[in-house]
Amino acid sequence: MLYFENDYCEGAHPAILQKLTETNFEKVSGYGTDPYCASAREKIRAACGAPDADVWFISGGTQSNAIVIASMLRRWEGVLAASTGHVAAHEAGAIEFTGHKVIGLPHTNGKLDAGTVEDWCSTFYADGNVDHLVFPGMVYISHPSEYGTLYTKAELEALSAVCHKYHMPLFMDGARLGYGLAAEGTNVTLADVARLTDVFYIGGTKVGALCGEAVVFPHGAPAHFMTMVKQQGALLAKGRLLGIQFDVLFTDDLYQTISKNAIETGRKGLFVLHGFAHESGVHRVVQRAAGRAGRQGQVRLLGEVR
Length: 306
Hints:
By secondary structure, the chain is of the alpha/beta class. It has helices spanning 14-22, 35-48, 61-72, 86-89, 94-97, 114-126, 153-165, 177-182, 190-196, 225-231, 240-249, 254-280, 283-296; strands spanning 54-58, 77-82, 102-105, 135-142, 170-173, 199-203, 213-217. A 7-stranded mixed beta sheet has the order 1-7-6-5-4-2-3, with helices on both faces. Helix 7 (153-165) links the parallel strand 4 (135-142) and strand 5. The longest helix is centred in the C-terminal third of the chain and has 27 residues, at 254-280.
């Protein structure tokens, strides 16, 4: 049986469950100050090539998005995102609930183009009434995008340059980052992501963990970030539960192994779906979909739920 509902139907990788069981009765300090969180942070820094990065573990993607955006924006600022971006379309107004507007921009197959951001910002600052408007304070992107498309290194470099020009941090939602890094033909590495963004997160929930995301600030987190996490109800007392999972994921390249397996399994599923469609007389529709997927690097077959 093939399931296309989402990529978190199952529990967790057996190695994670085994480690959680093995360490279950160990007595460690709470709130992410335990040895497992410390070890996971060091492994993530090494994988990112960012030895001075701040790494925080948060329970889920929507919490990560809301907390990161709220911690980095000032009261009069909003976040620029593709109109299809998760923060704009599928988080029940979580960002707006923190007091910050999501400013939706046109997209190309789910991706935000540097030229679009440049045009919007230049038009904004040319307006004589900017003091009556929400200022652009951050750019949010997803990799892979909500359409399953991938940014190239050149596209990320262009976005980073525009963000620096207008003094805006670039934030990458990496809920499915592992798949983007493992996709065939990509020229973007984890070190590239750390170099070209101001904050991103490494998704665990959708890449083998029970739950959890690792938020990475390559150049340091905002002041009192932990307090913001606590204030918004996302700081686990048993922080070890997240630390252990990411410590396992970043041991012996397990994160990459899981991600590559997902890509290969998705490809096999596409072939099976194509064969079924051919037998059922609708193969032309699936053939067109498969062609688009191949051209655009898409891995999504059916609707995305996150």
